[in-house]
Structures are given as C-alpha cells and as structure tokens.
Write a structure and sequence with these properties.
The complex is a heterodimer. Chain A is of the alpha/beta class. Chain A has a single domain, classed as Alpha-Beta Barrel (TIM Barrel). Chain A is built from 14 helices and 13 strands. In chain A, the strands form 3 sheets. Chain A has a 9-stranded parallel sheet, with helices on one face. Chain A has a two-stranded antiparallel sheet with strand order 6-7. In chain B, strands 1, 2, 3, 4, 5, 6 and 7 form a 7-stranded mixed sheet that branches. Classes of the chains: A alpha/beta, B alpha/beta. Chain B: InterPro entries: CE1759_FMN_reduct, Flavoprotein-like_sf, FMN_Rdtase-like_dom, NAD(P)H-dep_FMN_reductase.
Chain lengths: 388, 252
C-alpha cells in the first residue's frame, strides 16, 4: 500500500495572522514538503494543476521534475492532470520524459478539474468536457503503447505517422489513475481500461465514496481485468494532529472555520463526523483511517491533504512528520496484514515492468527509429512486427 | 392506491407559533380527511400518515448542505421522507414577493429529481391579501421547473383569513373553503394514480431498468465470447448515470 500527500497549491491567508504567502514562498515550500515526505517514509507526492489564482501550480511537470531531481524513492504524481485542456500529445511526451529522468517514479491522476473557465483559456469547449476527456485519454494511451500512431478525432488535429518521444521507459507507460468525485462516467472510464480509480473523498461522506468505488470495481470486473476486489483504488484524506487531541482541535479550528469550501458551513465536529477529516491525536487518525477499507475494500493508495486553509509552512512540515513517523507505519502494517493475497499491491514501475516482461519477454530499449523512412522510420504497417 | 398514504408537510414559517404552521396543519388535516373519504367510497380503508417538518429546525443543516454539497444525516431523513411520500404539502410565508429564503434554500440544497411527478399542494401566508398573487407568480413556477404535479388550487392565507368565520364574513371564498377544495383536488389526483411514478423509488427503479437494458445489450455481445453476465448492482440511481465505454468508443 502507498501513502502520500497531495497539494492543490492554493494561496490562502493564514486566518490567525492574516499572513499571505508569496507565490515563490508557496512553491519553495511545496518542494520542501515533498523532500520531507520522502525523508519520513511516505511513498507519494502529488500536485494539482490550476491555471488561475489563488493557485500556483500551472506547470506540474516542471515542479515534479525539480522535486524528482532532489529525491530518490518518492513517487511523483498529480492531483489532477487536466486531460481536457492539455493536449494529449504533450502529456504523452512530458510524462514519458519524467519517467526516464526519474527512473520510472511517476504516475498520473487524470481529471477534468473544477474550473469551468479553464476550457476556453486553452481553446476547448466546456460543454464537451466529458467527450474531450474520453477522446483525449484514448489517444494518450495509444501514444504510449503504439510506436507509430495514425489518429483522427474531434478535438485536435489528426496525427499521421506520429511517434511520441521519448518512448515510455522500459516500454511500459506510466500508471494512470482517474480521479472523479461525482461522475460515474469517469469511474466507468477507469474500469474500461483497467486503470486505477482515485476518489478524492475529502469533502464527501463515506456513503457516497463507497458507492462510487463499488461502481468502479463492478465495471472493472465487467471488462475482464480481474475480480472487483482486484481493482486499483485510491482515496483522499485529511488530518490535523497534535500529540494531545485537544491541542489539535484548538489549533486547527480557526483554519477549519475559515477554510475554502466548507468554511462558514458545518461545525468542525459535524464535518469530521461526516467526512474523512480527522482532527486529534495521531492515534485517532490511525483509528479512523483503519476503517476506510471496511467501506471501499482493500485499496492501494491513501493520499492526505496537509497544506491547505492557510496553515503555515512550519506547521505543515510538522504534520507531514507526524504522518510519516507515527501514523503511516501503523496504517501500513495493519492494512497490509488484512489485505488478501489476491488483491494487488500498489502499482510501481518496477512491478509493471516485471508484469510486462512476464507477458512479452524482456524489453529491448535499442533505438529503432533511424531507418530514414518518413520521420521515424517506422511505418504503421510495420508496427505489428516490431517488438515494443 | 396503497393502503397507507404518506404525506409530508413542509412548513417554512420562522416564528413559533406561526401562521404558516397553522395553514400547514389545516391543509394536512383537510388532505387526510379528503383522502380518507375517497378510500371509504372505494372498498379499501386508507390510512393517512402525515409527517410535518418545521424547516426552521433544519435551517443549519440546509445551509451546511448548500456549502458542503451533501446533506447530513438529519437532513437526509427529511429528504428520504419526501422521496417516499405520496404527496407533499409545502407552505411558506411570502417575503419580498417570494418564498422565504429558508424555503427556497431547501430546494436549492437537495437533489431536484425527488420532486419529479410528486403531487405538491402549495400554500403561502402573508400579513395582508395584497401579497396573494406571489404564490402564483413567484412560488409556483419553481415547481414547474422541478416537474412536480402541483395541485391546481393553491392556498393563500392572509392574517385576516384566520380571523374570519367559515361562512365568508371576510371573503367570498373563505380560507376553509379553499383549503377543502385544494385537499379534494389532491385526493382526486392521488386516486387517479398521479404521482404513483413519482421521483425517488420509482425513479431509482427506472434507472435500474436502464442499467438492466444496458447490461442486457452488453450481455448479448458477451454471450458470443462466453463471458458471464455481471451481477445486478445495488447502487443508488445516480451511479447508473453513464454510457458504457465500449459503446462510447464505438467498440461495443
């Protein structure tokens, strides 16, 4: 099982001091958080993509590459990658690049985002959000799995004899999760391809999350990728901890009361009862997150949001340390102990390469695009005979 | 018609006691009487079960649902009661030529599907009769949007209506007469089967049917491959709202 943190990189005033971090402070702070995450034993760091204030992460691959260069084991992911407004050709290229440079420590969570106006900023039609997501992702997969692609669709110019470079590391595409909170269509999409499904349930009651995950699992089995419980599930999470639970409650309350999304709404007590947000001691966080699998089945990835609502960087770093040193070791031990043998491990590049090689033999990474025929030397009609 | 008719009465009055609640109770009693009488004319004995909800008691829950976008447990119980109801009596004070904000917020906060085909008896109160058309011009249209089955007679009560005697001292059409007429119309709608396919249970069944049809199509395609049909899903209707990917990509 993998545990990690994700950030949406919002710039939010600290409600207790009024201090607003600069964009530069926020970006540098995120890099520091990611490095600490690795040091304290977390597995994954994921970053959101937004193209409007108050957010600062318009370019996730730049940020992830910078972090990747300063870490050795941390898996780098997204939360989410906009499959709608990014050109799938560029996603294919960027993340294959990241794969090579980080030794395969990369995966993606695809999403449609929650900001309507972003569509026209990138020349897309908001009314076609789902259709674009479906078409773009289908092309993206082909660009990673087929060396030469002829393609025609509705939302970008056709491709003829196109090769996305570099080819995926070891001939294995990055693992893809599909993130959706409310759209059954996205759960269906994840299931169809046998990809992962990440339900970022931080603002939702478990009754909703359990049903979305169940839908994905049923459809995963329907499409023949394995049994329902063998599907790849990730969840979101949110916690604020202090050794003494009352200290956590007192310290976090002003951040809760003023937070984007739920601030001004329910009391912290109501919201913690209804959603995965847990405010208390590390033991209470452990106790809460041990119950998630009872609702969604044994799952592969648990992500936590730690740096929102204007929490100062120092506090966020303390939270990441508590998460990594006190909470996750117990969760990891207990959740892995209860996981049945036929439920797959969380996907890693090494495991995916091993599985691919078991299926099609070892991968030859010799450069093979120099025969001078067309740009790449590999014609579509030859592709079937070429080992990938 | 079933043996038990379930009515949910929503009262959006803000004071205690409130004239809105008085009108709500008057409508509920009249509706129960009229529906029971219809049953007596037929052979079946009809029980009428009225659940009255003071929205004021759920004001915070409704606000929370608007902000968090999901109803908490308390509000979910109200929603489920509405979903299961054979008819709803909805009564609001008129504020600024519209329903009270609390009344509107409830409808803004919850799934609009539950109102589809639901028989709704509308009532409104205000200080004077000069506000009487607010119910037709500012409150009824929303129920058209929600595709509810609004009882043709809506009942408006000004403060003076409660003081008038039933013989029409204050009005050619005294409140009690209008209440009885609206209640009779509601009973007639119910005995005619209107609302029998109302949102909620029936809508869920419809979605399940859609899913079943889709599965049947998928199963037919799979039969050739010898793949087993999938088990019937136990998910809520909203989770059946998708197009199978193989069909979407033209690979079905």
């Amino acid at each position: 099982m993998q545990f990690g943190i994700f950030t949406i990189a919002d710039i939010t005033p600290d409600p207790t001091t009024g201090k607003v971090p600069t964009e530069n402070e926020r970006l540098k702070g995120m890099v520091e958080q990611a490095k600490l995450a690795e040091q304290v034993g977390l597995d994954v760091f994921a970053i959101g993509e937004h193209h409007n204030p108050p957010f600062v992460t318009s370019s996730p691959t730049t940020t992830l590459a910078y972090i990747g260069a300063q870490t050795t084991d941390l898996i780098l992911s997204t939360a989410t990658t906009l499959i709608t407004t990014n050109d799938p050709v560029k996603i294919a290229e960027d993340y294959a690049m990241l794969q090579h440079l980080t030794g395969g420590r990369i995966d993606l969570v695809m999403g449609r985002g929650n900001t309507g106006p972003v569509y026209p900023w990138f020349g897309q039609d908001i009314r076609k959000g789902v259709e674009i997501a479906i078409e773009n992702y289908d092309l993206l997969r082909r660009l990673w799995t087929e060396d030469v692609v002829d393609w025609e669709g509705s939302f970008r110019t056709p491709l003829q004899q196109f090769t996305s470079t570099p080819r995926p590391l070891d001939g294995v595409a990055p693992f893809v999760w599909h993130g959706s909170i409310r759209s059954p269509q996205i759960a269906e999409q994840a299931a169809y391809y046998g990809d992962g499904f990440l339900h970022n349930n931080i603002f939702w009651p478990m009754s909703h999350t359990a049903q979305m995950v169940q839908l994905y699992r049923e459809r995963f089995e329907h499409y023949g990728h394995g049994t329902a419980r063998q599907a790849y599930v990730g969840l979101g999470g949110q916690a604020f901890m202090r050794k003494n639970s009352q200290d956590a409650i007192t310290e976090f309350r002003p951040y809760f009361d003023n937070a984007p999304v739920y601030g001004g709404g329910p009391s912290m007590e109501d919201f913690t009862a209804q959603t995965p947000l847990t405010v208390g001691s590390p033991e209470q966080v452990i106790e809460r997150y041990l119950t998630m699998a009872d609702n969604v089945g044994d799952y592969q990835r648990q992500m936590f949001l730690m740096d929102h609502a204007g929490l100062p960087q120092k506090t966020v770093l303390e939270q990441i340390e508590l998460l990594g040193t006190e909470v996750v070791p117990v969760l990891r031990r207990e959740l892995e102990a209860r996981k049945p043998a036929d439920v797959p491990e969380a996907p890693t590049h090494a495991a995916r390469v091993a599985a691919a090689e078991a299926e099609r033999g070892s991968f030859d990474d010799a450069y093979k695009f120099e025969t001078g025929d067309n740009w790449t030397g590999l014609r579509a009609e030859d592709a079937g005979t070429t080992r990938r | 018609m079933t043996d038990t008719v379930r009515l949910v009465a929503l009262s959006a009055g803000l004071s205690t006691p409130s004239s809105t609640r008085m009108l709500t109770d008057q409508l509920s009693r009249a509706a129960a009487t009229a529906i029971g009488r219809d049953g007596a004319e037929g052979d079946a004995r009809i029980e009428v079960d009225v659940t009255t909800v003071e929205l004021r008691e759920y004001a915070h829950d409704i606000t929370d649902a608007l902000l968090t976008r999901f109803p908490n447990e308390r509000l979910s119980m109200v929603i489920e009661a509405v979903r299961a109801a054979d008819a709803v009596i909805a009564v609001t004070p008129v504020f600024n030529v519209g329903p009270s904000g609390l009344f509107k917020m409830l409808f803004d906060a919850i799934d609009i599907e539950i109102w589809k085909n639901k028989p709704v008896l509308l009532g409104a109160t205000a200080g004077t009769a000069r506000h009487s058309l607010a119910i037709d011009y500012a409150i009824r249209p929303m129920f058209g949007y929600l595709k509810a089955e609004v009882v043709p007679t809506v009942v408006f009560a000004a403060s003076a209506d409660f003081g008038a005697d039933t013989d029409g001292q204050a009005d050619e059409q005294p409140l009690a007469v209008r209440v009885r007429r609206a209640a009779r119309e509601l009973a007639t709608m119910l005995s005619a089967g209107i609302g029998a396919s109302a949102g909620g249970a029936e809508a869920a069944a419809g979605a399940a049917q859609d899913a079943a049809a889709r599965d049947a199509a998928g199963t037919a395609a799979e039969a050739a491959d010898g793949a087993p049909a999938e088990p019937t899903s136990t998910l809520d209707a909203e989770f059946a709202d998708f197009v199978p990917m193989d069909r979407l990509l033209g690979r079905g």
